[in-house]
Design goal:
By secondary structure, the chain is of the alpha/beta class. About 40% of the residues lie in helices and about 15% in strands. It has one domain: NAD(P)-binding Rossmann-like Domain (Rossmann fold, 3-Layer(aba) Sandwich), CATH 3.40.50.
Length: about 400
């Protein structure tokens, strides 16, 4: 079939298998072109099929030579419906890992469930013995608690006051104002339950109890802080409260794992185009302005560049991992340089529908968004027939 992008708001409902494979190979090629990392040997990535999770898996495998297990919730093709981008990404990764002689396995299902945790533990025990790095990179709008059965839904809202600021429709360039009502107490509770640290804690507890977490193991989860422009809807809003819980969990896990020489961190990463960030009002316009400034100064990084720098310069640098006063790893340091933020703030104040393509990299944002789903990727003939039914090697 000929596969074209179909969008609904900030969601693309189709994905292109060859485009996704090309994107994965580009990331692999980047990593293989960098100095290798003396890093982990056996890695579990929870949330491994897109974004920072996928990039973490690629760096682990193709820079450190690690065996990997990826856990993710994606769907294969069915009838006239394509598979999800994460499915195609993972198929491409598994094929490349097999060619490189690396062990790699995929488990598809609800990472929040006890069933998937148990299945993952059994796979690790049988195939790898133990893992020495656990990457937690889950992004989901909902979570069903494995013990109580309650289903939580997250919201992207400010706390306390109504919030109004600029936003952009990245499909057509319309810059408008978005007004968001504050979250209720129950919405805040549910967002923390979905996006906070409880499930990360459950994964580490389960791996430890089963004896498949190596002594001296490292675990890392991902977060974002960002500038004052986005704070009301992000860091000071419901998502920020959930990230505070994630960071508190990291401190508990650091103590828990420290007894056997292990470590736990939250890495604060750069703002990037993801399906999740595209859903947050204000953020796509901020990212578009940020991209323009960082690209002009030669400081722009994508997911793979960020994760390579995290692994090589921070987690596995041969010494102590540098952290800030809150114990956070900061690979958002280039984004948050004062001179970068000053320039972005100037652009932000001037941005309108009439000048958005001139004063920001909205076209780059849009191209990168569609690239997440394998579209607008160099070297792919989108008028040619493509087979949407792609199998994932080593799917358990």
């Amino acid at each position: 079939m000929i596969i074209k992008p179909k969008t609904r708001g900030f969601i693309c409902t189709t994905a292109h298998p060859e485009g996704c494979a090309r994107q994965v190979q580009r990331q692999i090629n980047y990593v293989k072109g960098q100095p290798s990392i003396d890093g982990p040997r056996n890695v579990l990535v929870v949330g491994a099929s897109t974004g920072y999770g996928l990039a973490s898996r690629i760096v682990s495998a193709f820079s450190a030579g690690a065996n990997t297990v990826g856990v993710y919730f994606d769907k294969g093709a069915e009838g006239s419906r394509t598979a999800t981008a994460g499915w195609y990404n993972s198929a491409a990764f598994e094929s490349a890992a097999a060619e490189a002689g690396l062990k790699s396995y995929s488990i598809v299902g609800d990472a929040f469930s006890d069933e998937i945790k148990d299945k993952t533990i059994e796979l690790i025990r049988e195939e790898l013995g133990k893992v020495d790095l656990v990457v937690y990179s889950v992004a989901s709008p909902r979570r069903t608690h494995p013990k109580t059965g309650e289903t939580f839904s997250s919201v992207i809202k400010p706390l306390g006051d109504v919030y109004t600021n600029k936003t952009v429709n990245f499909h057509n360039g319309d810059v408008t104002e978005a007004t968001i009502e504050p979250a209720t107490e129950d919405e805040l509770r549910q967002t923390i339950a979905v996006m906070g640290g409880e499930d990360w804690q459950m994964w580490i507890d389960a791996l430890q109890a089963a004896g498949v977490l190596a002594e001296g193991a490292t675990t890392v989860a991902y977060s974002y802080i960002g500038p004052s422009i986005t704070h009301a809807v992000y860091r000071d809003g419901t998502i920020g409260a959930a990230k505070n819980d994630l960071e508190a969990t990291a401190h508990r896990l650091h103590e828990q794992l420290g007894a056997s020489g292990g470590r736990a961190f939250v890495s604060v990463n750069k703002a990037l185009v993801t399906q999740s960030s595209s859903a947050i009002p204000v953020v796509p316009l901020y990212i578009s302005a940020l991209y323009k400034v960082m690209k002009e100064r030669g400081l722009h990084e994508g997911c793979i560049e960020q994760m390579y720098r995290l692994f090589s310069d921070r987690l596995y640098n041969g010494g102590t991992t540098p952290v800030d006063e809150k114990g956070l790893i900061r690979v958002d340091d280039w984004e948050m340089k004062p001179e970068i933020q000053e320039e972005v703030a100037k652009l932000w104040a001037a941005l309108t529908t009439e000048n958005v393509y001139e004063l920001s990299d909205l076209e780059g944002y849009r191209k990168e968004f569609f690239g997440l789903f394998g579209f607008e990727t160099d070297g792919i003939d989108y008028e040619a027939e493509a087979n949407p039914d792609v199998a994932i090697p080593n799917l358990r």
